[in-house]
Design a protein that fits this description.
By secondary structure, the protein is mainly alpha-helical. The protein has a domain at about 15-300: Rhopdopsin 7-helix transmembrane proteins. It has helices at about 5, 10-15, 40-65, 70-95, 110-145, 150-175, 195-225, 230-240, 245-260, 265-290, 295, 300-310, 320-330, 375-380, and strands spanning about 180, 195, 365, 370, 385-395, 410-415. Strand 3 (about 365) and strand 4 (about 370) form a beta hairpin. Helix 4 (about 70-95) packs antiparallel against helix 5 (about 110-145).
């Protein structure tokens, strides 16, 4: 039976125009411009959405680009994403009406109806998302850390998966049927009965906290038994320690659930509960996605390729600018050159070989004009060869660089002296 069948339109309008809670003594209700903390809520929503989108893209990129395979947990995590986005979208509409962290005596009964309806809907969507994400995390850990299906870790993960699903399904059913008739959940002025939802919230949030603590400790027990160095174990444990933040957010939800049961100011207490829930689901998404980030660092990233592309498109110096820059470089660094390589880079090269030759600089003639030595040499070559000298060169490989002294055959090399 709906509220329209119990009350006339005038009675409904009168009820919905009343304060949702009597104000404390000496305090007047402010319906037009109530005190709120919408800026904090919007900042938290924006940060959570940005972090989730960033790390979800990293996981998707590494799975498709590098690993080139998608597993069951990836599909389950993908199904969870729309529920998270839908819940956060509804959460983002609350600052417009009635507002975040607004005291209940500063809003009307009609505004409270919309707030509680949104709260129930967001909670259901987040429960579905958390159920799917946590199942994905545990399935991935089974694939990462378990070689066979008979280990204790395997059975612990599967028991936790099914316990997690049962927990969230029970939560969704309970929230949907808290009151009879169901409409009384958000319209408390309708006659009917309701269970003690505050006690249920406290129990379920405490159970979530215990579950998150078990998920935090579970992979570390396996990591520290691996045949790796201590430094490697610390690095892997750090990647799987994002759950510490999730446990902190779950503890925040427990505190807010306690305050929900002890305070009649529902809109203020429920607002904090929703923000802690958003933080918990965001950090749970990070637990699922962050382990893929180190894989991306092992290969050239997309940003690195963009940087190389932009660098290749930068305009190069003209030949005249290039010659002048080389001349200034030789003046500041007399014996250094961009063509010169360290000796230890080419240990087989003789110290006087052409591998250490520098480019010739422009020289000035007596009349003050700069001349190119290569051009001047070619002009002299046109007059003919004046003298040749034959030099026999013997090279050997040093045993320090992986071989015995081997005598190379002598070979003549003609040098031109002009």
């Amino acid at each position: 039976m709906g509220s329209n069948a119990l009350f006339t339109e005038d009675e409904l309008d009168l009820i919905r125009s009343q304060p949702a809670l009597p104000p404390p003594p000496g305090v007047a209700s402010n319906f037009d411009n109530p005190l709120n903390n919408n800026k904090l809520a919007i900042a938290v929503i924006a940060v959570c959405m940005a972090l989730t989108a960033f790390f979800v893209l990293i996981r998707a990129y590494t799975r498709i680009r590098y690993m080139k395979r998608v597993k069951l947990e990836d599909y389950i995590g993908l199904v969870a994403l729309p529920f998270f986005i839908a819940g956060t979208w509804i959460l983002g509409s609350i600052p417009r009406d009635p507002g975040f962290l607004v005291h209940q005596w500063d809003i009307r009964v009609g505004d409270l109806e919309g707030f509680i309806y949104d709260y129930v809907l967001i909670t259901i969507l987040y429960c579905v998302a958390l159920m799917l994400i946590k199942a994905s995390i545990l399935l991935e850990w089974v694939h990462l850390f378990v070689g066979t299906s008979g280990t204790a870790f395997y059975w612990i993960c599967h028991v936790m998966i099914w316990s997690n699903c049962c927990l969230y399904v029970t939560t969704i059913i309970t929230i949907n049927f808290t009151c009879s008739p169901r409409e009384r959940i958000w319209r408390r002025y309708i006659p009917g009965t309701c269970i003690n939802i505050d006690a249920f919230n406290l129990f379920i949030t405490a159970f979530h906290l215990v579950f998150d603590l078990l998920m935090l400790l579970l992979p570390h027990r396996v990591i520290w038994k691996l045949s790796l160095s201590t430094q490697q174990k610390i690095g892997i444990s750090t990647v799987f320690s994002v759950g510490v933040v999730t446990c902190a957010c779950a503890a925040g939800r427990v505190v807010s659930a306690v305050m929900m049961g002890s305070s009649p100011d529902s809109t203020y207490a429920y607002s904090r509960h929703l923000l802690w829930g958003l933080a918990e689901i965001t950090t749970t998404e990070l637990i699922f996605c962050v382990p893929a980030a180190p894989l991306m660092l092992r290969y050239p990233s997309l940003l690195h390729r963009i940087h190389e592309f932009l660098q290749s498109k930068m305009p190069t110096l003209s030949p005249r600018e290039n010659i002048s820059s080389n001349s200034s470089q030789h003046r500041t660094q007399p014996k250094a050159s961009r063509r010169e390589a360290p000796i230890n880079e080419y240990p087989w090269m003789d110290e006087n070989s052409d591998g250490h030759l520098t480019e010739l600089e422009l020289v000035r003639s007596r009349d003050g004009h700069a001349k190119n030595p290569y051009q001047e040499q070619s002009e002299q070559f046109q007059r003919g060869i004046l003298r040749t000298t034959e030099i026999a060169i013997t090279t050997s490989e040093d045993s320090e660089f992986g071989g015995e002294d081997v005598q190379k055959p002598k070979h003549p090399q003609a040098w031109l002296d002009c």
